[in-house]
Amino acid sequence: MNTAPDRDEIQRDLAAILEARLGLAGLGSLEHETRFFADLGLASIDAVVLGEAIQEHYDRAIPFNLMMADIGSRSERDFAIGELVDFLHIQLAKSGER
Amino acid sequence: MIPIARPVAIVGMSARSPTADDLTAYWEGLVAGAPDASLRLDAAEPNPSACENALVDAGIDPQRGAGVPCLAPITDAIQNLALLQRDIVLAGADDGSTAFALVLKRLEDARRSGDRIYAVIHRMEDSNPRLVPAHTRPAAGYPGLVRQSLALFHRVIPPAHESDQKRYRPWVQNDPDSPRTAIVLLDRAPAPPVCLVLQEFPERGLEPGPLRTWETESILLAASDRGELISHAQTILSQLERSSSRPFVDLAFEMNQAMDPFKPARLGLVASSCADLKDRLQAAIRGLLDPRKPNLRDGRGVYYFDQPLIDRPGRLAFLFPGEGSQYPGMMADLALHFPEVVDRLDIADRIACELGEAILPSDQLFASDRHGTDGLWDAATAVNVVLSVQWAMYQLLRKLGLSPDVVAGHSSGELLALAAAGALAADRRLENALARLGAIFRDFERSGEIPAARLVAIAAGRDQVEALCHEIGRSDLRVAMDNCPHQVVLAGSPEAVECMVSRLARLFIPCEVLPFERAYHTPDFEAVMEPVAKFLNTLEWRAPAIPIFSCAIKGRMSNEPRVLRAQAEAQWTRSVDFRETVLAMHDAGVRVFVDVGARGNLAGFVDDTLRGKPSFAIAANLPRRSGITQLNHLTAALFAHGARVDWSFLHARRRPRQVSSAPTSCPLDDAGVTTALIDYQQTMRRFLAIQREVVCAHLASASSGVEDLEDFTFDWADEPDSEALAPAAERSPGPWLGRILEHIPARELISRYTLDPVHDPIARHHTLGGRRTSALDSNLKGLPVVPFAMMAEMAAEAGAILASPDFVLTSLADVIARKWVIYERDLPVLEIRAQRLTSTRDERVAVRIHNRGSAGRDELAQPIFEAVATFEARAREPQSARPWRLANARPGRFTAHTMYDEGWLFHGPPLQATSRMGMIGPQGIDADLRVLPFAPLVRSGQPATFQHDVIILDTFTHILGAWGLDWSADEGDVMFPLSMALLELEGARPAEGTNVSCRIAIEHADHHRIRARAEIVRPDGTVWMRIQGWEDWRFHWPGRYRDAFRQANHYLVAEPLATAIPAGSSVVWLEPPLDMTRPVWRDVLEQTQLCPGELERQRALGDRDRTRRLFAAVAAKDAMRRVLLARGLGERFPVDLEFVAESPTGTHVRDLGHADLRIAVAVATAPEAAIAIASLDPDAKPAAFLSRIDGGETFNLSKDQSFETGQRGAYRYAWSLGRSMQQ
Known about the structure:
Largest sheet of chain B: 13 strands, antiparallel
CATH superfamily of the largest domain in chain B: Malonyl-Coenzyme A Acyl Carrier Protein, domain 2
Number of strands of chain A: 0
Strand content of chain A: under 5%
Number of strands of chain B: 44
Oligomer: heterodimer
Helix content of chain B: 25-40%
Largest interface: A-B, 35 and 40 residues
Number of helices of chain B: 33
Radius of gyration of chain B: 33 Å
């Protein structure tokens, strides 16, 4: 049985992926409320690349299209790192249960 | 209606409300949506504080305002001004906690005084104004008056607090002939209320911006290496730890000012406050201390790169996106701070008006709550909005000092790429082109002709997407755009797209159906290409100045205009292959990409495409980050990557307050400054001691033969004793490098050259204002100034020191001249700072020249001259010259002789290399130049060798000047060199005496600028020098000023006034062009109109008095010269006359050549004008005569103790006499 990573672990993984795949260097610790677009200055395509890298990292398919559709419907089309951690925690737990 | 006889200018204001202590706080509150204070209009009460603050705001010393009344009701104040009862009035009201005061002047007076004018009150009307713009409902009372004045001044509409409009918006005006207008309701119960009609004052300078405080600042630090950068950051951090109460904007300004742009290790930071800066510094220091991190880019505002990517020309690309990069509200925040953006938005609205659009772009962008956002996606609006806004952003980037080496456009963005590269005109013609293109698309849409297609952006690569198309059996889906490995845009029928979207959902692949349905970039668009092709044919195509890459051909576009046009046409029907284009640009050497659009998509595409390769992409604007913050990120990031960023542009309108003048101190509290300064000095002493050892070792090893090494000092405060310490002959690159202060071989150099008007021969041969200004002293000439070519040579000589021995100069690029530099008597010092840009493989050196003032004591300020010098192992092989033929040419009006002899040019014999003038036409001019010896231009004992031929380069400007004189109308024929994109040298310098051909092609000429290119061609037809992108600034004056500069004895600048005056008298009116009130043309006027004694006295005067005194003297002398001419007593040079005021024998002008000839004069002056009367009659009393004309007041300069009185008097004369002249 797979063990789903906890939130802290996911957050550390995210920081490493952002550094390795999106060229963010010297990030240090990521904060929950850090916004992907407004604070990190990333572009829409970076979200796609991040999604792909996360799937590669955890070696499983994750429905990022749902999350992107949700973000697209918001007035502030942005998301916080904490939201992404929560989303991944749920999705990874689901796939871990299978 | 209540008439206002004369428009009234609001020149100063103060405000105090329960929530704001001053005008700035009040305005910031309004912009943030705070409610106005309420105050009825007629509650006028004196309030010294409000009055004083408003006067200070108007630039008036409150102590001088003893006679100025306290607050008056606004209607009374206006009437007082209109009836000339007062010149300055204060209006306003005070009810204790709330006070508003306004300083008012007649518009004509305010304009003459050069006052900052918030708004102009044009009229009073009844309370039912008909011309109220929809979005500027009337405001009431003094709060409304202040609010609307500020809104007009800043062109920003604050949110209306009682409405649901939450945000400020740019105040956009579509009609250039109709200024922005606001209405203020004057509630005068029980009398019927009336309205004041306010308008913006359209003549603008560099007024303060609306908000001094920005949400973030960029802070730029530089050091010699990473280790020193860490120390520098730690020092600043420790200073910040001790806290400072100073505004963050001022701290940022001072830190940036202390930054040495020549240091290669660069750290760019973005922070919102002192505390935030501490966080950034801590993060930066942590990262810099970690040797595993060559780069820092945390997305939040830390940028550092061990290997900066802008290390040579050709690295920086600007990318212009097309349709789809728009979003509601875009650029509103930048419009708040940068008038350049509002200007472009005005144009966008005007274009839409001309197209007959019902809803203007500004409404689409900034009032989308009322209109929805769909309109933003209409074809005509989209093209107009996207391209206009992007062009505004491009202007901002250029003002930040960023110039692209390469450009590319995505879809319709290619039009701007073409304009940015110079292939298309970037002036009013571009606006018209946008309007016509918009009209074409509007017609497509209305007629339904535009081929429809649904577009879907898919987050996957091209191969995968094409495989999916095949898999679902939809071969009718086509790739319209291949943006990057993670995004492809497909075009197809709605059914086909629907089918694909379903398939993508099952694969968890994100996708987005785009909000427009136009089959751009597919063969289907061919059906409607005819109007687009016709449109492109109407444009004026030129060879681009920089490379343009096309997404249709996935490579560099042609330099041939005809081919270029065809390529631009083809891109509309071909897919946009942005991914491969970016790869091609990278292969061509481009490393840094700036997305000039509003969304930043292209930057993301570039990052995705070049992941893993040395590259960097950044957006100039992002929808989810404020415009200011992203601009700061861009500044910090590009600075860290080695770009030459003019950060001062970000502070230009924010009135930075500097506490310390120490250029390298940490800008904290006083104690902090002292500590930082001591630390700095100790560090510098250590650093310089090491430097000295390095320099000694280097020069010794080079057998330099420098004898005075022991006296070598790096103490910049020392007055340079001479240029005796210039490097020895075998290492000397030329005579104008001066004394070397600091030299790290192959890396950096700082030297100083003292401008000596007596011992520098070139000072005698380059004299603005003419070669002969006196009949009594042939040594008197125009104003000696440093030629452009001389500064170019200084840059080349500095570069030669840093280049490898035996390498030769092959080009000078990006040459910018910002100011004339005068050979002053107090020996100004030019500081030359040079830095090798790259490793030893590359031989480019960036050079900046600063004017450090007398004895080099001035602070290091913006460079006056910049260039990049390139050196190669051997001279370039000479190429054949371009075919040369001038269309519609004729012989010029000048010969080589008359051009100099008649004073059309101001150069002495050693610089007169023109041997024959050739033909001239609307598109160019040619002439023969003779290669002359250098020795007459250099000081005795200095080497007469140059890196390039200074004389020929200077003489090229003579020929270009001759074109301006010959081909221009009476005005615009005086020109000043601004910049030169490139000077290339091929082969060796021809032998002295050789005649070479100078062929100049005029590429562009408008009211203020001329751009040209040229080739200097040897007798065998090969090119010796090639000049590209030369730009001159044109001065527009009445021709008599130019003529007075060339033959001062023959031409007069003051105009005679036709009025009844006694026989033997003359009255003249002098109103020189504004240029004559400022350096350097005022200096030239002084030099050519004042005798040595007058010049001496001028130097003791303050700025304003200096201009007034000069104008008084010129007017007085011209009045006298007219009297002498009328009597047949001959011409005089003004320099041979002396204006004597405050003499016991009365104000007069005396002839220095005839001691007994003196003429009584009376003069009245204003800041920009003077009137004078002169009479031969020894008993005449000109002052009394002037007073008779004016009706009782005397305005003799010597008796005139009141500036205001003199000003009023002079203009009253002008008005009355002007009328009589017209009659």
